[in-house]
């Protein structure tokens, strides 16, 4: 597999190590940035966190044991970095500042509105973003990124039964929110 070949090059410190790492960034950079954005709801911060994820990947790649595929490992790093950020003082301060300024919580900008032009997609998108984090993350990882329940439980360090419960509750909340925002049942 191409990923295995890239990992071997990076781990060997071969002359093409930089090229191999750049290839991993090309393969997963946008995907990771979109995942992070779904948590932080701010494009500039998602870009910063994405860079942080790949810096960590670069410095810790020799610790990759190969027990899962590299995509799963990168997702785990991204989710952990994002959760750390969401717990940070900086994030909480920004939330308070945004509320005081009267800025929308979702941080919408022209790019986002352009990307989400379809009304039903926009309503679904808004509904997902309004879910509490513990439900939003299982919906995004399981349905949007198409990871299994087992993989989702590994990413989030929770039991598979907990993932199933959160998915069930998230679907109910999502349906309520979707209908409330004008989506069709």
From TrEMBL:
Does the keyword field hold Transcription? yes
Instruction: Kindly indicate whether the keyword Repressor belongs to this entry.
Output: no
Residue ranges of domain RNA polymerase sigma factor 70 region 4 type in the record = 123-174
Q: Which domain of life is it from?
A: Bacteria
Its BP terms in the Gene Ontology are: DNA-templated transcription initiation
Tell me which UniProt keywords the record has, alphabetically: Sigma factor, Transcription, Transcription regulation
The record places domain RNA polymerase sigma-70 region at 25-88
Output this protein's name: Sigma-70 family RNA polymerase sigma factor
Q: Cite the source lineage.
A: Bacteria, Bacillati, Bacillota, Bacilli, Bacillales
């Amino acid at each position: 597999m191409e990923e295995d070949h890239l990992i071997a090059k990076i781990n060997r410190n071969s002359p093409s190590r930089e090229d191999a790492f750049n290839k991993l960034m090309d393969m997963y950079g946008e995907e990771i940035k979109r995942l992070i954005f779904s948590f932080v709801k701010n494009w500039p911060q998602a870009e910063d966190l994405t860079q942080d994820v790949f810096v960590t990947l670069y410095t810790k790649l020799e610790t990759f044991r190969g027990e899962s595929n590299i995509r799963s490992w990168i997702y785990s790093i991204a989710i952990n970095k994002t959760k750390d950020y969401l717990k940070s003082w900086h994030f909480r301060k920004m939330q308070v500042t945004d509320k005081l300024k009267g800025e929308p919580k979702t941080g919408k900008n022209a790019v986002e509105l352009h990307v989400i032009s379809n009304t039903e997609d926009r309503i679904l998108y808004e509904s997902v973003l309004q879910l509490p984090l513990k439900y939003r993350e299982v919906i995004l990882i399981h349905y949007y990124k198409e990871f299994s329940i087992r993989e989702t439980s590994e990413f989030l360090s929770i039991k598979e039964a907990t993932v199933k419960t959160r998915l069930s509750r998230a679907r109910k909340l999502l349906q309520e929110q979707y209908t409330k925002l004008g989506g069709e049942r």
